[in-house]
Structure prediction request, 215 residues.
Amino acid sequence: MNRNVDIDQISDGKRYDANDMAKLGVDDCSGCHACCTGMGDSITLDPYDVYRLEKGLGKTFEELLTENLELRVADGVILPCLKMGAGDACTFLNDEGRCSIHPHRPGICRLFPLGRIYENDTHKYFLQIHECHKERQTKIKIKKWIDTPDFARYESYIDKWHYSLKNITDCAKEMPQEQLKQVNMMLLQRFYIADYDTTQDFYTQFEERMAVWTA
Ligand code: SF4
Ligand code: SF4
Prediction:
């Protein structure tokens, strides 16, 4: 979702591309799980996040929704996000204060403390400087940090999903309530509730769903 913040106030003032190096490395998060606690409904999931969770945990979207996810409304659009549970912590945080689903964690968790800024039909990265509780010492290439295979396809997908959602949120402002409700139901059904075939490539399935959505 879009946030109305002055990027220069919260970042080091630079814009990064996927092949750039940024000061991201922190020796060990031990004793800290601040970025997995008290996040409210801010960790929104995109369809690839749900595919990763379905594949990694062997659960359907509806099963995930009963324990680990919830639905949020922002700018008129309903999307799933991580649920905060006991102690206001993410339900995937284990007793040792570690992420129990690290290989399958959502894109926002992979990105942190980076953010994305969308311009000219694509995006750049920026480094949030006030969010992590430990000093970031070593430089790491951004695409290595995000740790997602097939990175060029992933970035292209991220742009397509972002601008499609932006289109919907722009239209939502003027849409009659009943129509908006139907759009939300279709969006959820098409991109989240209808299970992905996790033995098959995600991006092909996403493109097929997007083609029907935009037809
Ligand atoms: S999914 Fe893992 S990394 Fe993300 S907020 Fe939950 S515990 Fe933290
Ligand atoms: S706030 Fe920083 S140090 Fe703390 S868990 Fe998150 S990444 Fe690690």
